[in-house]
Amino acid sequence: MSGSVKRFWREVGVEQVESGGFTVALDQRPIRLPGGNRLVVPSHALAEAIADEWRAIPPGESFNAQALSLTRIAGTMIERVAPHRTQVIDTLLGYGAADLLCYRSDERSIAQEQAALFDPILEVFFLRYGVKPQVTDGILPIPLDPRLEHELRADLGRFSDAALAALGVIVPVLSSLFLGMSLVNGSIDEKQALEAAFIDERAQMRRWGEDVELLDQLAVKARDVNDACRFLFLARASEANEA
Questions:
Q1: What is the mean pLDDT of residues 204-225?
Q2: Which one of 11, 30, 115, 165 has the minimum C-beta count within 10 Å?
Q3: Confidence band (pLDDT; 50, 70, 90) for 238?
Q4: Strands 22-26 and 29-30
Q5: Helices (H) and strands (E) in the chain, counts
Q6: Coil, strand or helix at 131
Q7: Can you tell me the distance from the alpha carbon of 141 to that of 52, in angstroms, rounded to the nearest whole number?
Q8: Quick one: pLDDT at residue 232?
């Protein structure tokens, strides 16, 4: 959905579909995505949360896609991730080849802070795969070890479409595949992920003072990560119900 449009519907409802999953309907008409697909999500909880986004728009008021964060991620899951999983995984692996956690500052105090936050996260991947991600304080790119890339690709291939859609938001915001996968796997929480991702910005403000514009940018990034995590949590409600 591009541009700004006005609310034209009276009622928003959630309906179960024959093939499984749930759709959101505006005046009993299922929402259609830009590619023509129906918006169908795996859990009733996620569908209700998406419906709440549409209900929150006042009658007759203009709105744009920024007001529909869960809807946007669901659309990505359905029209980009599901039909193009290999390409999505390739894109995510590209972030792993230039991962924030693998590039350290040459300033001692910042490097120590990075090590304290980054190394325990990378250690989990080493214990899982038996391959240690390389770390440098230089600026030249470090290609992923082929064995590590193979293991990461295999792990990503086991992720649901919802998890890959969430990672598609989280990884670019955090500039780190390792942080994104750790967050989605539950080995770190949002606070830990954001603390690790924004070390440079905090160091900049310690040196030069509080920057309102920078703080606003970080708040937007934190909100995007929260939206993606909330989307995945609600999508996984169906898995919990089936267990």
A1: 94
A2: 11
A3: low
A4: antiparallel
A5: 11, 6
A6: coil
A7: 44
A8: 98
